[in-house]
From TrEMBL:
<dbReference type="Pfam" id="PF13670">
    <property type="entry name" value="PepSY_2"/>
</dbReference>
<feature type="domain" description="PepSY">
    <location>
        <begin position="8"/>
        <end position="85"/>
    </location>
</feature>
<keyword id="KW-0732">Signal</keyword>
<feature type="signal peptide">
    <location>
        <begin position="1"/>
        <end position="23"/>
    </location>
</feature>
<dbReference type="InterPro" id="IPR025711">
    <property type="entry name" value="PepSY"/>
</dbReference>
<protein>
    <submittedName>
        <fullName>PepSY domain-containing protein</fullName>
    </submittedName>
</protein>
Length: 92
């Protein structure tokens, strides 16, 4: 019983740390209701126009998060779905 409890605690801590490591903390781009957002494809198009090879995109909080590669390096680009302005960039 004691071993099982120790393993369960270790797994819980490991999962929590993994989630924290994946979260980058940037999620606030707009207060506009989602029904009024511009399409995510337009954020991807802006990244492509800026020279990024877009790999994928997703919604992160109230931002469009676009994953792109430029000059062999991976970037996370955070766009406001309200006006498609670039709010934050993280180089990986």
């Amino acid at each position: 019983m004691k071993v099982i409890r120790v393993v369960a605690i270790a797994l819980t801590i490991g999962i929590g740390m993994g989630s924290a490591a994946m979260a980058d903390g940037f999620k606030n781009c707009t207060k506009l209701d989602k029904a009024s957002w511009k399409p995510a494809s337009e954020a991807e198009a802006k990244a492509k126009a800026a020279g990024y090879e877009v790999r994928r995109s997703k919604v992160e909080g109230s931002c469009y998060e676009v994953y792109g590669v430029k000059e062999g390096k991976l970037y996370e680009l955070f766009y406001s779905p309200e006006d498609l302005s670039l709010k934050h960039t993280i180089a990986k």
